[in-house]
Amino acid sequence: MAVKKWRCLVCGYIHEGEAPPEVCPVCGVGPEEFVLVEEKERDVTLSEEIKVACRSISHGMYIICSKNGERFNGQTANSLTQVSGNPIQVAIGINKGNLTHEYIEKSGVFVANILGCDSIDLAKHFGFQTGREVDKFKDISYELGAETAAPYIKEALAYLECKIDQKKTLDANTHTVYLAEVVGGGILNKGEPMTYSYYHANRK
């Protein structure tokens, strides 16, 4: 008899067994959030498992902001990491179709706002709509960074002002990977940094 497979409706994790797990090992939800995977779905099980495995990589959650003249935009992102310490440099991947990508290309700067666990709504606000249709900064408390004149969000735990090296970018198919030097920043609030897994478990 074939082993039953159960898919988590929250994060996509696939569990094998006669019954769903008591707790999802990825996002922490209970068995009520699992559905039985039908035979026709099993051909995509591997790709789903790969996606879930990638979510297990330790990520933070950030709002990446940039500018185009006097216009600003920002997006939620998780693909940022520090890659060197002297000078301090970070790498970030941005989808080529996003307005933030367009602004970074034009200005050469961005601000990485580091989110706390109490900023789920902020992450959704900047992640679930496009700046091509709405002004994401309307009713958002922000200031402009001293080094980049790009916005940092006062609700964030901290922010990093970054300038990219146009000669050190990588074409990653759907995304561009930018290498950037951190030229400014600061601590704004106290709190626990939000992780990617925490975001997926609590974003409803």
In CATH, the homologous superfamily of the largest domain goes by the name Electron Transport, Fmn-binding Protein, Chain A
Helix/sheet category: alpha+beta
Beta-strand content: 35-45%
What is the helix fraction of residues, given as a range? Answer: 10-25%
**Count the strands?**
12
- Our measurement of the CA-to-CA distance between the termini, rounded to an integer number of angstroms, reads 36 Å
Outline of the structure:
The protein is an alpha+beta fold and 204 residues long.
Would you mind describing this structure in some detail?
The protein has 204 residues and is of the alpha+beta class. The protein has 2 domains: 5-55, Single Sheet (Rubrerythrin, domain 2), CATH 2.20.28; 62-195, Pnp Oxidase, Chain A (Roll), CATH 2.30.110.10. Helix content is 17%, strand content 38%. The protein is built from 4 helices and 12 strands; from the N terminus they run βββαββββαβαββββα. The chain has helices at residues 45-55, 99-107, 120-127, 196-202, and strands at 5-8, 14-16, 34-36, 62-68, 71-77, 80-85, 88-95, 109-114, 142-144, 151-153, 158-172, 175-187. The protein has a 7-stranded antiparallel β-sheet with strand order 5-4-8-11-12-7-6. It has a 3-stranded antiparallel β-sheet with strand order 2-1-3. Strands 9-10 form a two-stranded antiparallel sheet.
